[in-house]
């Protein structure tokens, strides 16, 4: 796993092999940040990384100058690794061991970007619940964006505040925004590589 851009571009991060994770591939990650680059100046963005796993996405934001970043995962090993890596790189990341749904129910903070990468095998209703909790609890800033990474077999484009999606092989990034005044016709766009 490597950081693809920013201050620590090219730096490799080697998480323990026993963590229960499926990290976002470098190709998908690069494409995601190319999209976000059109919407945001990464400096000082407040980011929430749900189902953070190895911290892969959190480090990418931190390397670009974002922070504070909150990384939430239910696995003790993942949270321990994120804390260790954040200290090593002096990243503005707070790692929290928590059930993601409980965190979303209780959080009073707001964020510019919320990224969620749940297990692909999670039930459809739980993917939908992530979207519902974020918007019901007003966790996203007015000009913010939520991105959910999921399988192409788990459609969530019917949910309120859906904006657009991008396909990368078997993986999909669905983007949600508070205001969706402009329709972007990219829902069927398929990039030429598989993740």
Automatic annotation (TrEMBL):
Spans annotated as Disordered: 1-21
UniProt GO MF annotations: 16S rRNA (guanine(966)-N(2))-methyltransferase activity; nucleic acid binding
InterPro entries xref list: DNA_methylase_N6_adenine_CS, RNA_MeTrfase_RsmD, SAM-dependent_MTases_sf
Listed Pfam families: Cons_hypoth95
Entry EC no(s): 2.1.1.171
NCBIfam families: 16S rRNA (guanine(966)-N(2))-methyltransferase RsmD
Name of the molecule in the record: 16S rRNA (Guanine(966)-N(2))-methyltransferase RsmD
Native source species: Flavobacterium supellecticarium
């Amino acid at each position: 796993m490597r950081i693809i851009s920013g201050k620590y571009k090219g730096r490799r991060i080697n998480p323990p092999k026993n963590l229960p994770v499926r990290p976002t591939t470098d190709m998908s990650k690069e494409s995601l940040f190319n999209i976000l680059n059109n919407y945001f100046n990464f400096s000082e963005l407040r980011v929430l990384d749900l189902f953070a796993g190895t911290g892969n996405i959190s480090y990418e934001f931190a390397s670009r100058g974002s922070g504070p970043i909150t990384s939430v995962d239910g696995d003790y090993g993942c949270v321990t690794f994120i804390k260790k890596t954040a200290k090593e790189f002096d990243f503005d990341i707070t790692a929290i061991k928590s059930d993601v749904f409980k965190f979303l129910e209780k959080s009073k903070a707001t964020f510019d970007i919320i990224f969620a990468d749940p297990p692909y095998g999670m039930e459809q209703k739980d993917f939908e619940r992530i979207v519902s909790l974020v918007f019901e609890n007003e966790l996203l800033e007015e000009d913010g964006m939520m991105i959910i990474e999921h399988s192409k077999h788990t459609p969530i484009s019917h949910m309120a505040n859906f904006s657009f999606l991008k396909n990368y092989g078997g993986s999909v990034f669905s983007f949600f925004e508070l205001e969706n005044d402009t329709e972007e016709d990219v829902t069927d766009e398929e990039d030429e590589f598989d993740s």
